[in-house]
Amino acid sequence: FSNIRSSIYPSIIDIFQLFKISLNKLITFQIIVFLISLTSFIYQLLKFKVNKIVICLIYLSLFLNIYYNGFHFTILTESLSFSLILVLIGQLISFFHSKSKMNIIIIISIITLLFSIKPATAPIFAVVLITIIFTLWSEKKIKKWKIRLIKQKYIEPEGAARHDWIAFSAEWTKDSRTYV
User: Which of 32, 95, 114, 148 is the most buried (most CB within 10 A)?
Assistant: First the structure.
């Protein structure tokens, strides 16, 4: 690894070597992280009542994919990156349903960890950040103006000049209604 493209993954390997833990245990660690992330992802799908057949198909496609799972049995950054991306997708699903600020904090934390493990994931950060900002912006409450058509002949002019509500009370009678 070069100084220009720093990554936390060599530090993880160094920690395993510092405690004299074999690199086979690192592979076991990667598999455990993958299984936890897969469980987290499936939990998010179940939480928001996605069809169980769809969940089974997603689970089987992720679990039985030889190419995808091959990364978890080698010492590569892709293993932890793919696991974090699964957790990230699950948190994004949760965010789109609840718009919780806690989800935003978790998403930013996952992206930061993902970026520290594999710096090439910076575009993911940009896309997710733009998506979150757009989602929050589009959810702004827009004032709705209620328009009522009232025939002038049912408004009492003196009461209306005083802004007295009773001047407009005739609008609730059946013969003053205008159907649009």
Answer: 114
